[in-house]
Amino acid sequence: MKSKVYYIAVSEKDPIEVVQKKFSKLLDASKILDAVVGKTAALKLHFGEEGNTGFVKPQYVREVVTRIIAKGVHPVLTDTNTLYKGRRTDPVEHTKLAHEHGFTREAIGAEVFIAGSPEGQATESIRIDQQYIKEAFVEPFFAGVSSIVGIAHFKGHIMTGFGGALKNIGMGCASRKGKLAQHCDVSPIIWEKSCIGCATCLTVCPVQAICMVDKKARIDKEKCIGCATCIAVCPVRAIDVPWETGASVIQEKMIEYAWAVLKDKKNTSAF
User: Fold this and answer.
1) Are 66 and 20 in contact (CB under 8 A)?
2) pTM for this prediction
């Protein structure tokens, strides 16, 4: 099926205000936001890592927010916590980082809400019975909103080659357990040389799959349910995902997760 593509030329010399106006024309001409309805719309975006500029500028997001508010829908700027350790692992620090990058109510007209707790144990199970993913684990917030508006930037990615609109939804709306399921089919791994034997991971594991051996943490793969809570709480980043595994199918898993997030919102979402 052919799609109509809307685009407009911009130059790196164009001031932000000029690009903002051009983007506004694209929104009006495409009528892409006509699909947004209901009480709440989740504006799913990436607020950027600390110290980088790889995210959609707040000024452009404001154009989307203004139009959604005019429709009588409540917009929420949102993202989920990352699987890897950093400021975006914790919702409080993640929110602060978003504010530091200009995503404030004063600047945008909408609040930031990071979906997920520091431990990342909350999840919504969605049955999809696809080739790789039979049951998808999604952050409950995205399952409950009326509409989802995907605002993505294009980037290179170590495992998928490129990341964009579909990764923003498929990986970006998954719970911590769902992110791990997409990256691999095995338990997290522990780098013994880095482990300091603090046992923090042992205390948070919901199924007691972690024990201490010679003052080092060990994961029982038979008991592990793949929630990845241990990754989030390790203070020295000794627990990680085996990133080298599953690269050949991660893109297909990601698309299946995007389907899980959007299957009940086919006509009420925009990207």
Assistant:
1) no
2) 0.84
pLDDT digits (tens, 9 = 90+) for 187-212: 788 999 999 999 999 999 988 999 99
The three-state secondary structure class of 212 is strand
Residue type, 122: A
Closest CA to 197 of 179, 211, 186, 187: 211
- Number of residues assigned to the chain: 271
The continuous run of DSSP H or E covering 68 comes out as helix 58-70
Query: Rounded to 10 degrees, what is the CA torsion of 79, 163, 177, 255?
Result: 110
Residue 14: CB atoms within 10 A of its CB come to 13
Residue 103 near residue 40, CB atoms below 8 Å: no
The pLDDT tens digits of the residues spanning 81-120 come to 987 778 898 899 999 999 999 999 999 999 999 998 776 6
DSSP one-letter code for 146: S
CA proximity to 43, closest of 76, 88, 17, 9: 76
Q: Which helix (H) or strand (E) holds 150?
A: strand 147-150
